[in-house]
Amino acid sequence: MKASKPYVNVFASLKNALRGPQRLPRTFHTSTRRAKIKPFLLPDIGEGITEVQIIQWFVEPEARVEQFDKLCEVQSDKAAAEVCSQSRAGRARRLMRVQITSRYDGVIKKLHYDADDPVADDKPAPAPAIEPSIFPSSSQQPVTVEQNPEGAQQRSSGLLYEKFASPKSRHASLATPPVRELLKELNVAIADVTGTGKDGRILKEDVQIFAKARDTGVGLAALRGPSRRLSGEERAQVETRQPLTQIQAQMFKTMTRSLSIPHFSYADEISINSLSKIRERVNLQIPSSHRLSYLPFIIKAVSLALEEFPLLNSRIAGSEDDPQQLIMREKHNVGVAMDTPQGLLVPNIKNVSSLSIMDIAAELSRLKNVAKDGNLSVRDLTGGTITVSNIGAIGGTYVAPVIVSNEVAILGIGKARAVPAFDAQDRLVKKEIINFSWSADHRVVDGATMAKMAVRVRGFIEEPEGMMIRLR
Asked: What is the SS3 assignment for 213?
């Protein structure tokens, strides 16, 4: 065994030789690296553009910037470009922004152009300098940044970098280079001029009017004359906040509750030829101040039909936790929707089943006068069992009425109008009609019940003699 040791040493030496020279352990060493000045060149704004104008700077000398921070915004006759450092993004004809994002972390040392200065592409590019600067060339424009290679290491050490937000300066106003040239010629500050163009853009006319008002002492309004009409596209949207009125707030709550009700809708066309003749004869016998409209007859017809279909005069009681119940109501308190100066109100006529048509008309007149003066009482506005909405008084033909939460049905009435029709002998005759639109709570009122109720009301209107014999 001892004789084999020299061979082991030889193989070990060969193994070490194949591995190459052994590396000694290294310790971590840091030293301050010399900062380098890196010029930053803006990209080509677009083909055919010979001059751009700096609108505003987002940075200032000695400002610290990081990758992707915005630097400046420039504008040409064809486009405005927002510059933020390394190129990303395309181009548009008008107010298109090209974003450039910085490749470095560092400090801005010098800006060679001021905001509002034009930069032409035929100026020779200055030689690279120690200080960062803007380099105009045929394809590239503005800015240099002092590179900070140890930026990442400093961030890991807990140093914070301040980012400069876009300053709200007078150079942020929108205006094309020719307009800005005119501003300089007339010695007008862009911040003093109110633009009337799209999105507040300053036009040549705005600058000329302002300069003339300044030189002559005449007010701007007098020089402008009638303001030109802007199209809907050009005008900026104006929004103002205002609180809901008391009635609007109450209507908001009521209609929100109504949204939980599944509505069943039923519409029909009612002939009022016979009713119109009776109404005309009655109006000849009473003072003109008390003449009847169709509404008192319709309200009475609804009350008479409710005697046969009391379900539509009921209400639903109970909550999600309690058993649901129907509360049947004996009196027919018919609500009438009214358009008042205060808003939509629905007072109701109490106990319609005990009233004559003339009584109903008198109560309607009283409620209208009181509502107009804003003096409706709590009693007038509470206790309704079914509602009639006469949208035809305003001019509508069709309506989809919304049920009040403590009721199960509502009737919407359209405008009375004349249409051509055929009689029983196929002769063309004039026919006066009104559209009735019903809504019912489909949780408790099925379609058949609603249709039967509507047909019964239709019968009373089209053949008013049947309604007259049931009057008390």
From this structure: helix
DSSP 8-state secondary structure symbol assigned to residue 342: T
Distance, in Å, from the CA atom of 361 to the CA atom of 349, rounded to the nearest integer, reads 10
DSSP state of 3: G
Please tell me the distance from the alpha carbon of residue 138 to that of residue 79, in angstroms, as a whole number: 17
Among 307, 335, 347, which Cα is nearest to 460's? 307
DSSP secondary structure string, 256-308? HHHTTSPEEEEEEEEE-HHHHHHHHHHHHTS-GGG---SHHHHHHHHHHHHTT
DSSP per-residue letters across 74-137: EE-SS-EEEE-EEEE----SSS---EEE-S--EE----SS-TT-EEETTSPPPPP-SS------
Q: Can you tell me the distance from the alpha carbon of 28 to that of 186, in angstroms, rounded to the nearest whole number?
A: 65
For 130-139, 244-253, 344-353, 370-379, which range has the lowest pLDDT when averaged over its residues?
130-139
Annotated catalytic residues are: 442, 446
Cβ within 8 Å of residue 300, ≥6 positions away: 352, 355, 357, 360, 460, 467, 471
For the chain, what is the largest distance between any 2 Cα atoms, rounded to a whole number of angstroms?
Answer: 149
**Distance from chain centroid for Cα 232:** 16
The pLDDT assigned to 156 comes to 33
pLDDT average, residue stretch 23-46 = 56
Cα 273 → chain centroid: 47
The 3-state DSSP class for residue 159 equals coil
Whole-angstrom distance, CA of residue 444 vs CA of residue 311: 8
